User: Which sequence fits this backbone?
């Protein structure tokens, strides 16, 4: 799964990461690299939660419309694409 994420530098310190295709999926990190690593875990947890309630996780495509609430559009923003891979867990 690959998602577009928006990295926002915070005024005090650190970075908030928003995932427009997954409303409510937000993460934070002290550095840009940490924030991008943390959002991968947030995406996996968000998708797992959706699937546990019978919802299908959205898949981004060329026709996907991404939006961010206007109140989140503050400070310097950068856009990234992150790929996440659900881990296969073997039960013994």
Assistant:
């Amino acid at each position: 799964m690959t998602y577009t994420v928006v990295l926002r530098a915070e005024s005090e310190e650190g970075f908030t990461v928003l995932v427009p295709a997954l409303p409510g999926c937000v993460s934070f990190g002290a550095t840009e690299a940490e924030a991008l690593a943390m959002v991968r875990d947030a995406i996996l947890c968000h998708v797992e939660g959706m699937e546990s309630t019978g919802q299908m996780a959205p898949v981004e495509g060329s026709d996907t419309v991404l939006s961010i609430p206007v109140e989140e559009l503050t400070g310097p923003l950068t856009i990234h694409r992150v790929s996440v891979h659900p881990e296969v867990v073997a039960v013994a």
